[in-house]
Design goal:
This protein has about 90 residues and is of the alpha+beta class. About 45% of the residues lie in helices and about 20% in strands. This is Methyltransferase domain-containing protein.
């Protein structure tokens, strides 16, 4: 099977090298967001209840895939957000 063919079990085009890494990361991000959506929504709602004002800036240390960072950005729309992760 060459790089422009598709597999019935894996319907998108085959990828190699950096493309394969990008596809794998995109799939991981989608799964991460789907699995954690409810939890992160509840967590950010709880964080919002801890104060009577919205934060001006949020620093997300160890942000990983960024799913939590995006949940914070959706909840605290007026806050500036910095995400930092040192994984390679």
């Amino acid at each position: 099977m060459n790089s422009s063919e598709t597999s019935p079990a894996h319907p998108h085009q085959n990828h190699s090298g950096a493309d394969a890494d990008a596809v794998a990361m995109a799939e991981l991000l989608e799964l991460d967001a789907e699995v954690l959506r409810t939890y992160l929504s509840e967590l950010t709602d709880w964080l919002g209840e801890l104060s009577d004002r919205e934060p001006g800036h949020i620093v997300d240390l160890g942000s990983g895939t960024g799913t939590g960072t995006l949940a914070l950005a959706r909840r605290f729309t007026q806050a500036g957000i910095t995400a930092l992760d040192l994984s390679s």
